[in-house]
Amino acid sequence: MKTILVVDDFQTTRKVIINSLAKFGYKTIEAGDGNEALALFDGRTVDLLITDYNMPHMDGAELIANMRKNEQYAFIPALVLSTEIKDEKKAKAEQAKITAWIKKPFDLDKFLKIVQKAIQ
To answer: Three-class SS of residue 47?
Structure first.
């Protein structure tokens, strides 16, 4: 069973994503911001990171960049799920080596296909 870390500062959004992933057999762990998420990269298995972009303390690109500094997690796929449309923010996320940028609100079927492709 694959484990997905879901990071979003809005609990409702986290729950929607987690419930959708659970229906397809994924195990999930969650965090409310980048600092909480970084603390979860503590040796446990994480197969995929799904993170919001705009969050307090640390944005999604900074979270991914910090995660990639840890050898154990340097190459796991990272999806950014965001309402953000600014090119400079997308560029910052691309510099952090994101796997994909998914626009909110998202189509559930397309989202799940991207997750499946990223986690294989």
So the answer is: coil
Residue 89 belongs to domain spanning: 3-119
Q: Say yes or no to pLDDT of 84 above 90.
A: no
* Pairwise CA distance, residues 46 & 11, whole Å: 20
Of 56, 42, 53, which is closest to residue 93 (Cα–Cα)?
A: 53
The pLDDT score that the predictor gives to residue 85 is 82
Report field, pTM of the whole predicted structure over 0.70: yes
CATH number of the domain that 61 lies in? 3.40.50.2300
**Torsion angle, alpha carbons of 63, 68, 74, 77, to 10:** 40
Number of folded domains in the chain? Answer: 1
